[in-house]
Amino acid sequence: MVDILKEKGMPIEKQIRCWHDIVKRPYKREGVDCYTRTRQILLNGIETEAWGFKHCWVRKSDDVELNKLLVNIRRIEDMQQTTINWLSPYKQTILDTTLGYEQVAVDLTAWLSQNEDDPYVKETFDFGLLEDFDHLYRYSQFANIIEETDPNEILQGQTDVVIGRPTQYHHNDNSLRIRKHYDKNTATPRTKVNILTLISGEQQTHNYYAEHGFMYGNTDLKRLYAEICDVEEEHVTMYESLIDPNETMFEKWLIHELTEASCYYNCYADEKDERMKLIFEEMFQMEMGHLHQAIKMFEKYEKKDAASVIGDKIIHPCHFESQKEYVKKVLNNEVNKRVDADGTYNTVDKLPSDWKSYKVQNEVSKSGAPSEQAINLAIESFERDIALADNSLLKSQSKLLEKSLEKEAVAPNTICVEEYEQFNAIKNDNYLY
Ligand SMILES: [Fe+2]
Ligand SMILES: [Fe+2]
Ligand SMILES: [Fe+2]
Ligand SMILES: [Fe+2]
Quick check: is 337 in a domain? Predict the structure, then answer.
């Protein structure tokens, strides 16, 4: 077990690398393990968050000594981000990568939820999980329609592709998007790191969709990216509102570096590909160097023990494995869940007729929901949706939809329960290979 307070890692002055070392050979689209890809996607998001955080801080800091250190370390974060992000192969399409992003969201959130100390945070993770699960299903239709990709070329059978909480219901009234925050004095280091890990992944997903959705010539697909991009914005909003706003910047810095170090350590420990494993190990040593600096500055400026904020152990926020059973359980129990006032949750059947989100949902989907259009187009092309799961889950699609449909807000192009029932009579194998 790594003692994070004693382990000093790589000194900062040794962390500037040459361009040949920064830009490494990517993994191969064919043959890469899907969970090597998910690790690489998540770590890229972790680096982007680490870089952005230090920019925000320096913009409002007048402490020259501190700023020099932050400017130095954020340059290293930026170089790390280039290394990690550019491990993606040129031949991996935007939709391929998109399926990878949603696989991260589903399997990472499921892991975090089962390893979370705070019951309210866990409930919020489970809530978000079902939305990303539905995104995976919607994007899978387009991956097949536009690029003839069997989603399992990317997902490798580890993550199911069926309807979740329909995406048209992910758009909430602004007043409902903020959750209750933890108390920094009682929250465990694991809760703090779990939340920051997920925010980093969701923020990266948002940015990826915002920057790539327009790169397809198909307007329906662009609209789907726009719709889901808005949901990822909501996910960042929801998860970041779980953080205690009373944390000082020095406390936040400790949590950031611990999150980075922990994620790299988990990825290093789990990774089977020797070349990737070495990269993760080197990055872990660099992060321990950053963490050591953060501890030194925290103790100097706040004159407190860093262990009171981050404990003394590495956390396990990013283990990837198939989570089909867990996701199925949450899906069956919570597909009809909705967010209500003051960060509480409710179910569709108990929502008041003046529930605030009806208004925004009716507004954004008034000309049709792109996420429903994805299924309409799949029917046009293949007579049914593309869905990948065991038979019992496939057959439950119509029931899941029935349970989740809202009374007051239904997009005009919504695929109905009866059509989902018909899908099961049509085999989808022919369209996948
Ligand atoms: Fe980093
Ligand atoms: Fe998503
Ligand atoms: Fe998300
Ligand atoms: Fe760092």
Answer: no
Query: Could you report the per-residue pLDDT of 389-412, keeping only the tens digit for each?
Result: 999 999 999 999 999 999 899 999
Within-domain flag for 334: no
pTM, whole model, 2 decimals?
A: 0.97
User: Does 218 reside within a domain?
Assistant: yes
Give distance in angstroms: CA of 59 to centre of ligand 1. 19
Residue 286 CA to ligand 1 centre (angstroms): 7
Burial 227-241 (b: 16+ CB within 10 A, else e): bbbbbbbbbbbbbbb
| Structural domain total, the chain | 1
Q: What pairing do the DSSP bridges indicate for beta strands 337-339 and 345-347? A: antiparallel
CA of 74 to the centre of ligand 1 (A): 8
pLDDT (tens digit, 9 = 90+) per residue, 157-212? 999 999 999 999 999 999 999 999 999 999 999 999 999 999 999 999 999 999 99
What is the percent of the chain where pLDDT is above 90? Answer: 95
Summarised one tens digit per residue, pLDDT across range 307-347 is: 999 999 999 999 999 999 999 999 999 999 999 999 999 99
Residue 283 lies inside a defined structural domain of this protein: yes
Please tell me the distance from the alpha carbon of residue 121 to that of residue 172, in angstroms, as a whole number. Answer: 19
Q: Which residues pair with 175 in a beta bridge?
A: none
Domain that includes residue 54, residue range: 12-25+33-326
User: Angle, to 10 degrees, between the axis of helix 119-147 and the axis of helix 189-212?
Assistant: 20
Please tell me the distance between residue 99's alpha carbon and the centre of ligand 3 in angstroms.
12
Residue 229 makes CB contacts below 8 A (sequence gap 6+) with 206, 209, 210, 213
Rounded distance from Cα 246 to ligand 2 centre (Å): 29
